[in-house]
């Protein structure tokens, strides 16, 4: 052994002293002790231990007193040793480096083959986990769903393997809050779309308004606040002309309330409000949008998000728009996104019901109410395509 002293590890100090006496009798000298953690993987699941550093003769102690503030205690002098402040010399550096390398190797292996080292014991749960991972759901969401499935185990055990897809679908559908119709009493429903630029707000309004008018025979009015972008009003007017719906253009928040009253007086049953795309980073434009929203406390606010956006960007968009107290989320461009799976985590974090899904540019065809089963279809089927 190259070390000048020996290290003893035990669960308690008494146990460590016993080990020392066994090896050295009463001739050894305790250089110090400290608490440490042992075992586990990268710090997880480790156990608290006592570590005692011992030199076996006084001569070695003299050699070790090279500048370090150590106060050696003969092991014979005491039955109990408290924690003795001690900075141990750099021992076992090589071993520690080896252990770190080994841990890193295991971690790389885990990242390459997710689930291989999974602690999930039951084959049925493992199958469910693999299925969920294949939908590209975040591991934390997979873990959450797996523990839910585990909690709901029937007294007779888990179902047959053939039910994996069914169970997984069922659990996925349950994590999406349902989207009950928002009731506005005798007043018209006011559907107000907000969101970043180019996500499909205007196109979605055209789809919704056209369906409400043509399929549900509702009296519809459109209001646009998007006077910022050249051609934005014309874009909405072109759609509105096709299905013969009036478009009102509003420039200031205090004009909005009176305009809605005017539409209500004219018998509108559903009023759609289109806003200009706002970069969530543009504080001034965001506070202007908030002014419009504050003018209509009874409006349903739907945040429009494109599913082609990176999950982290979606999180940050939702965070910035949270000051607008939106009620619902509309997901667009499902036809262009690879999979809805990676977005499940951030949609759960947002915690608002999804109201509509859109999957194409065709007006009014490419839009669906987002019942949870339909959302699951987009999580499950996309990865099969
Ligand atoms: N592929 C696809 N394109 C869409 C969808 N919804 C909107 N778009 C397109 O996205 C672009 C921006 O839409 P627009 O409604 O102007 O976005 P806004 O700036 O949020 O109002 C247009 O080219 C739309 O045709 C969709 O569900 N799928
Ligand atoms: Mg627009």
Description:
The structure is a single chain. This protein is α/β, with parallel strands linked by helices. The chain has three domains: 6-97, no CATH class; 118-175, no CATH class; 189-384, P-loop containing nucleotide triphosphate hydrolases (Rossmann fold, 3-Layer(aba) Sandwich), CATH 3.40.50. It has 13 helices and twelve strands. The chain has helices spanning 13-24, 58-64, 93-112, 123-134, 139-151, 164-175, 201-214, 232-242, 253-265, 283-294, 311-321, 344-350, 372-384; strands at 6-10, 29-38, 47-55, 73-74, 189-194, 220-224, 247-249, 270-274, 300-306, 328-332, 354-358, 367-369. The strands form two sheets. Strands 7-6-8-5-9-10-11-12 form an eight-stranded mixed β-sheet, with helices on both faces. It has a four-stranded antiparallel β-sheet with strand order 1-3-2-4. Strand 2 (29-38) and strand 3 (47-55) form a beta hairpin. Helix 4 crosses helix 6, helix 7 (201-214) runs parallel beside helix 8 and helix 11 runs parallel beside helix 12. Residues 40-44, 59-71, 77-81 and 110-117 have low confidence and may be disordered.
